[in-house]
Request: fold
Amino acid sequence: MKTTITTVFAWEVLDSRGNPTVACEVGLTGGARGTASVPSGASTGTFEALELRDGGTRYGGKGVRDAVRNVNGPLAAEVYGMDAADQELVDAALQSADGTAGLQRLGANAVLALSLATASAAAAAAELPLYRQVLAPDESPLLPMPMVNIISGGAHAGRALDIQDLLVVPVGADSFAEAIEMAWRVRRGTAIVLDQMGLPTALIADEGGLGPRLPSNRAALDVLMSGIETSGLRPEIDIAIAIDVAATQFYDAGSKRYRLEVDQRDIAAEELVTELATWCAQYPIVSIEDVLADQDWDNWPHAAGVLSHIQLLGDDLFVTDRERLARGIADGVANAVLVKPNQTGTLSAARDVIEQARDAGFATVLSARSGETEDAWLADLAVGWRTGQIKVGSTMRSERTAKWNRLLRIEAELGPDARFAGAAALAPSNEPLHQSTDHRNLVPSTPATETRDQPCD
Ligand code: 2PG
Ligand code: MG
Reply:
């Protein structure tokens, strides 16, 4: 067999924040090789799988030599002789080598590096691009709708705002390439607006977004709206807004209240939801992520009731975890899930969560982390897994453009066969993303936002 794993080699590299992360190469009997490197979050959810760091003084404690040793030692020993083409079996072996639920022993960064490099080697052996390798046999590739960061706050921008991400969804785009150009226009328009306000535009946040200091969280929305207008695109029809509140970051579990530093307010969950509902009524918002904290389960059903007209996305809430998503589905607290492979540790576990979400009628958004590398596997996974949406950051910084550029290439290469998920991928009216649907007609004839343009309260 040409796809037997014969070599595993991991080493330490730097991510886009300059912090160490794990890279890995897997070699197969037939000579094929695959490499991968793993990303790292800053606004991490409390319940994510473990990112193993060395501690001590080297790299301020952020070194990953232990994780690298775990790949080259116990994890490699586990997969030698296995068939790289059987991803599920390899991932099950990696999971059982660790033996804990959150990969607490060997580290999710170690496990994911090997899981991804295995997929990449199997694709090389089959002489297929990764997106074809991970595609189900009866399905065809689907380019995702991008959710693009324009203004950053929270942990990605020195807490210049409490809200973490203000993003755009180019709902009027008919192709991925058109969507990226539209997002580029809004980013440029927003920079022009900030410049006119006398604010620096060179303050670039971790994901390439603008990181201005503004007087309030709402002021950031107003700047974004002006940016959309300056771009010449139409709010709602061409461009809609998405927000990642990342509320876990400003939640006080003791008092169970939310501290908005920029607004100088200390509010209860209900008030935060009311505030967001008001924004939904006043701005063309189609998606809100982590509206409440990951420990605030009790208040999520209220948020879901009030905000059910838009895409309610769980990131820190679900942490790409089957059990947490199952609870979210049962409690009806959201209608979409953000999927980050390093929150769970293996490709198979991430894919499982996508299937689980689809079966429940949830929309899926594959997401990068705020600390990324130049590796572009995320783009291939979005297309091959038909996630419908992708969140990568802004339209600049090479670790971000690596993913956009990969998607641009895939769309260009597919030519007339390229299918773009379009606005119909967004919950709550998301189209099923299984192949049974003909995605040529996924972009609705009326702008998708018209159906969602109802007050959220
Ligand atoms: C998020 C991600 C990406 P981080 O919260 O959605 O924007 O951030 O990788 O820091 O968790
Ligand atoms: Mg998030």
About this structure: The chain has two domains: 5-127, 145-444. The longest strand covers residues 5-14.
